[in-house]
Amino acid sequence: MSNLVRFGVSIDEDLLHKFDQLNEGIYSNRSEAIRDLIRDRIVEEEWQDGEEKMTGSLTLIYDHHQRGLTEKMLQLQHDYHHLFKSNLHLHLDHDYCLEVIVVQGKAKELRQVSGMLIGLKGVKHGKLTLTSTGKDL
Ligand code: NI
Fold first, then answer.
1. What pLDDT shows up at residue 133?
2. What strands lie across the sheet with 84-91, from one edge to the other?
């Protein structure tokens, strides 16, 4: 772990008050809230870059009655098996399924392949959430 550095910040009192209110009950101290903001900004940069290795989850809601859909979903996951790490499947009701897939790889490729899955006919909603692998945080 690197050395801790203390630094002073000049900030408008109202703005600081709003920040503290947002973090009430979430963070035990202001320093940790500020550290998380900085980390979030770093992760966002990695995501924009596209070449960094990221980890995250792809959540899909789909109608399993849609003809050929589950086969197409499986085929895509096998075609890009280096990106797909683990699946969680829930049968939501008679028609709909929820699939949460843990993904890992370059942000650019994850976005492209996730887009292919989300774009399949019968997928009602899909969302890719990426975070850092954590090594540079
Ligand atoms: Ni199901």
1. 76
2. 84-91, 96-106, 53-63, 123-132
State the pLDDT at residue 136: 72
For domain 53-131, give the CATH number: 3.30.70.1150
| 96 alpha carbon – ligand 1 mean position (Å) | 6
Residue 1 pLDDT: 60
Compute, in angstroms, the gap from residue 72 CA to the centroid of ligand 1. Answer: 15
With left for phi above 0 and alpha for psi between -120 and 50, is residue 25 left, alpha or beta?
Answer: left
Between the CA of 92 and the centroid of ligand 1 the distance, in Å, is 7
Q: Do residues 76 and 118 touch, judged by C-beta distance below 8 A?
A: no
Sorted by where each begins, the domain ranges of the chain are 13-49, 53-131
For residue 126, the CA-to-ligand 1 centroid distance in Å is 15
Instruction: Tell me how far the alpha carbon of residue 86 lies from the centroid of ligand 1, in angstroms.
Output: 16
pLDDT at res. 43: 83
The whole-number pLDDT of residue 59 equals 98
Q: Which ranges of the chain have pLDDT less than 70? A: 1
Distance of CA 54 from the midpoint of ligand 1 (Å): 27
